Amino acid sequence: MKRIEVWADMVCAWAYIGKRRLEKAGFGEDVEIVWHPFQIDPMAPATAEPLYEALRAPVADGALQACHPDLTPAENRVRVSLVAAEEGLGPPWGAVWRPNTFDAHRVIALAYQRGGPALQDAVVERILRAHFIEAADIGDRATLVALAAEAGLDGMAGALDAGEGASEVRSQLLRGKAIGVATSPTYVVGGTAVAGAQSPEVLRDLVRQAAPERELPDEVRLLRQAESLLDVRDPLGALRTLEPLLANHGDDPAVRLLAARAYFGSAQLTRARETLESLLDRAPGDHYARFLLGRTLERANRHVEALPHLRLAAVMSPDPGYTDALRRVESRVP
Question: Ranges for the DSBA-like thioredoxin domain (predicted)?
Answer without folding.
Answer: 4-206
